[in-house]
User: Fold Integral membrane protein from Conyzicola nivalis.
Amino acid sequence: MTTALCVLLILNGVFNIAVWPTFFRRVAGDPRARDSAGRPTAFFTVHLVIVIVALTLAAVSLLAGVLALLDVW
Assistant:
């Protein structure tokens, strides 16, 4: 069971690391991401924060899964 949970954590981390950058590229290209002067809007900033938090959690999940699988943690 422990091995299955470790693999689940690793898969979760890999999936999120693969998906969120693509999402952010779409957000950055969205017309709502910049105002008429080219400055980032609240739309862009909110999504940037969401992506940063999601990628941080993905990295922690991946690291925890690998460390637990190696029986280091």
